[in-house]
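During the second half of the funding period, the structural biology subgroup turned its attention to how the target accommodates small molecules. The most pressing case was (R)-mevalonate, which had performed well in the primary screen but for which no bound structure existed. We therefore specified the complex as follows and requested a full 3D prediction, including the ligand pose.
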Amino acid sequence: MTEAMDKKFYELNLSERLAQLSRESGVPLEELQILGGNGGLTADQADHMVENAVGVFGLPLGIARNFLVNGREFLVPMAVEEPSVVAGASFMAKLARQGGGFKAEVDAPEMIGQLQVLDVANLNEARLKLEEHRLELLELASAVDPVLVRFGGGARDLQVRVIEDSAIGPFLVVHLILDVRDAMGANTINTALERIAPRVAEISGGRVHLRILSNLADRRLARATCTIPLEALAFEGYTAEKVRDGILEAWAFAEADPYRAATHNKGIMNGVDAVVLATGNDWRAVEAGAHAFAARSGRYTSLSTWSKDAQGNLCGKLEMPMAVGVVGGATRVHPAAQAGLKLMKVTSSAELAEIIVSVGLAQNLAALRALATEGIQRGHMNLHARQIAVAAGAQGDQIEKLAQQLVLEKSIRVERAEQILKEWSK
Ligand code: MEV
């Protein structure tokens, strides 16, 4: 056995980590190599993705470990600049696996598209007429993507709503429900909406104004649950009961108060966005859906729920919209996103959504456990100190040594770091 194989993953250097990922996942090293570079995207590739491209913008890519989701092991790529996120997710996944890991499921990949229909003479009459033409409109919508239909997707439903109370008076809204299978689906649904819009105008006698998907993808929810055995919660000076009850009290705060809920949900999104981003998905879409869903009762609240079972174990649940895909968009063109999906061995949007929602739940637990006990600064500070050390000009082995010194002195400031470096160089 090599020395590297004796070490913990975080103790390895970057190239040793990649080699170990390849061994663990069985994915050839060449196919993972792109994860080990500066972001996996060349400036030329970026030039084909956005306008006025001048280069690419890098972010750290970490691998969350220990994830057991529906009985399968996953190594999860996370693109995130914030310290403690990858470590927090990995550590909580380790606790969760003591209770069998995460159980996750998703709804059918149905996206909602909206048509805003204005200038309708009689709203109720127009609504009935549109409902009478439901099948014709669904066929028209499905016809935009025969390949999707061959794979079992396509238009599923058409719903007509009347919005009574708006700044421009009452108007009609048509919802087109489309099963987008393994895509995120924005392009498909927007194309289908544009295709059916003229016919909707004819049938309703109105003017179709907006034709755009809704990011409140509440027909495409993902759910994860986990049970943390009570005894797994004890650490250092904290009893298991104290940690569990502290987490329940912290969750109750988020459940009751939007100010706290926003931060609580931000902690969930730390994990969710990092995987969404690493797999080339649209994290703004997932963010928008999450927060709109959190406010669905009229009061913004926690996306997660924490409780205890009859044995006193800690039980967590996270439910949220999860509009992510494994085909199309940046998922397809970004080489690092492709490598990340390979590493996870994910082949469907459902599997990806199940992993992401599990990471979100783990991340939420990491934050609540820290907040309910020692506070988040201790964990944050070690990594923050490394960033400060780098900012002060430390290199190689110096970085860790300087970071430790700053933590020891409880003075994690660039000026102090620079001062120490000067003293060392004398
Ligand atoms: C920091 O990025 C995330 C937390 O604020 C989340 C939370 O408060 O639950 C720690």
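Two results from this model are relevant to the next phase. Residues 82, 263-264, 266-267, 270, 367, 371, 376 surround (R)-mevalonate (CB under 6 Å). The two ends are 41 Å apart (CA to CA).
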